[in-house]
Write a structure and sequence with these properties.
The protein has 271 residues and is of the alpha+beta class. The protein has two domains: 3-84, 434 Repressor (Amino-terminal Domain), CATH 1.10.260; 93-270, no CATH class. It is built from six helices and 13 strands. It has helices spanning 15-24, 43-50, 54-61, 67-77, 209-218, 245-254, and strands at residues 10-12, 64-66, 93-105, 123-134, 141-153, 156-166, 180-181, 185-188, 193-201, 223-232, 236-244, 263-264, 269-270. Strands 3, 4, 5, 6, 7, 8, 9, 10, 11, 12 and 13 form an eleven-stranded antiparallel sheet that branches.
Length: 271
């Protein structure tokens, strides 16, 4: 285990989660435990069972504890207590894009009446796919609560929000793909979570598809930087992806309609 998670180091924890787990003991029978002197489910009972001091238990539920305390309490309460440590999981989490970055307008230009209208729509961005893995033996699942993406190239900086899990294939039922609304995803640890994720622009600072293409054609930078900030229940993770400006320009000319295509899919490159 890394030094950051030394058993004797004080850490910030989600104290209310430990408190809820302790109070739940009042309403269930634990065959291998006898009712404590001060009542099963009380702080004093938990201190007695773990051989910790009542002060240590109180400190845990107030939001501060060592890894040793967390593990001792978790054993008695039969919970995966490490997931309630603030920041625990960040060191064990990897996030990478292994395929393409899909850029497209928010309107289907192939439909009659939309032949030019699609150019004025804010563009959408999809990582196809994004792969997330939490490689830890002490917790079973993590909750991914949101992803923010920032695109920067030259002087342009655009913020994007997690919109859909999608399937951008020729069999897609709509222009945006087979959409799946999401608010939170539970990810099993030690197993890669892989999906295509679409992002929409911040409506208060958006750029149209045409404006984006024109800007990329003249910008001096050689790459677009995509910064992903993933928010899990008790920790955050940041990663970076780049897209070649030269490849994007080439796709603008090779894709249909030439120069101002409906969509392009350059390769995702990890920093």
């Amino acid at each position: 285990m890394r030094n950051k998670w030394r058993s004797s180091k004080m850490m910030s924890v989600h104290g209310e989660a430990f408190k809820r787990a302790r109070l739940a003991c009042k309403s269930r029978e634990l065959s291998d435990m006898k009712r404590g002197e001060y009542g099963q489910g009380s702080q004093d009972w938990l201190a007695q069972q773990t051989r910790l001091s009542p002060r240590t238990v109180n400190e845990l539920e107030s939001g501060r504890a060592t890894l040793k305390t967390v593990d001792a309490v978790s054993l008695i309460l039969n919970i995966k207590g490490r997931e309630y440590i603030q920041g625990y999981g960040e060191d064990f989490t990897t996030c990478r894009a292994s395929g393409v970055v899909d850029f497209r307008a928010g309107l289907n230009g192939r439909i009659a009446g939309n032949e030019t209208a699609y150019l004025t729509e804010p563009f959408l961005l999809t990582l196809d796919p994004l792969i997330i893995k939490v490689d830890d033996d002490f917790i079973d699942t993590v909750a991914l609560q949101g992803i923010l993406l920032t695109l920067s190239v030259g002087e342009m900086v655009l913020d994007f929000e997690w919109l859909y899990n999608v399937c951008l294939t020729d069999r897609s039922s709509t222009w945006l793909g087979d959409e799946e609304d999401i608010s939170e995803v539970t990810i099993a640890t030690r197993q890669p979570y892989q999906t295509a994720i679409m992002f929409k622009q911040d409506p208060f600072n958006s750029m149209s598809w045409e404006e984006f293409i024109v800007y990329i054609k003249k910008v001096d930078d050689a790459r677009i930087l995509l910064t992903l900030n993933l928010a899990f229940s008790y920790f955050k993770k940041q990663t970076h992806i780049i897209v070649s400006v030269e490849e994007l320009r080439r796709l603008f000319e090779l894709s249909f309609p030439q120069g101002f295509p409906y969509w392009v899919q350059p390769k995702a490159l990890m920093v």
